[in-house]
Design brief:
There is one protein chain. 59% of the residues lie in helices and 6% in strands. Strands 1-2 form a two-stranded antiparallel ribbon. The chain is built from 6 helices and 2 strands. The longest helix is centred in the N-terminal third of the chain and has 18 residues. It starts with a helix and ends in an 8-residue tail after the last helix. It has a domain of 60 residues: Hydrophobic Seed Protein (Orthogonal Bundle). The chain is globular.
Length: 94
């Protein structure tokens, strides 16, 4: 039962992330780019190298994501902060 909730949660997160596309400077802000980080954010799995590279790439967009109520509940979490820290990307102060 717990696994099915996690699958549904992950699918919802990916769908929400896929809906958001905004351009900030030279970076195209797309929360869907953070999909390699879903397992690290939703569990205690360490982030992959791909996840870390995507977090660094999307760093200019993180404040914008934090201001979005649909994304904030996924991005403004202790696990998301831990993933960012593990990847060497400071969590933004917006």
């Amino acid at each position: 039962m717990k696994t099915s909730y996690m699958v549904v949660y992950t699918i919802i997160l990916v769908l929400l992330l896929a809906q958001q596309h905004v351009k900030v400077s030279a970076v195209t802000c797309s929360p869907a780019q953070l999909s390699p980080c879903v397992s690290a954010i939703t569990s205690s799995t360490p982030p992959s190298k791909l996840c870390c590279s995507k977090i660094k790439e999307q760093r200019p967009c993180l404040c914008q994501y934090l201001k979005n109520p649909n994304l904030q509940k996924f991005i403004n979490t202790p696990n998301a902060r831990k993933v960012a820290s593990t990847c060497g990307t400071p969590f933004p102060k917006c």
